[in-house]
Amino acid sequence: MPSPQLCFGNVHHTRMRPARNRFNYGVYFLRLPLRNIASHDIQTTLFSRNRFNLLSHYDKDHGDGKQPLLAWIEQLLARHDITDADGEIWLQTFPRLLGYVFNPVSFWFCHRRDGACR
Length: 118
Hints:
Blueprint: E1 5-15, E2 21-33, H1 34-39, E3 47-49, E4 55-57, H2 69-79, E5 89-93, E6 96-97, E7 107-110
Parallel strand pairs: 3-4
Antiparallel strand pairs: 1-2, 2-5, 4-6, 5-7
């Protein structure tokens, strides 16, 4: 079964106008396998789900903020007649840091049972 992942990368940005600006800095982010974590608790010393910790992820920060993430994304897929995303669904997002949430972008990767990205 897939496990949550802490990943590292870089953000690059260049703006040409109205004023030239550019930056490049390191980031860290989470990749969460939603089907797996729906049935398994993922609390560790430094990371918690739906609970305060150094790094944490709260389901209410995504989807409609009311229902469990897996139910929300499955309803969204069904509404758009996507019926073959029956494998793992990954949410790639930034964790909260000491309870503070800054999440400028999140990505959802919906897979078929054979592992292909739908």
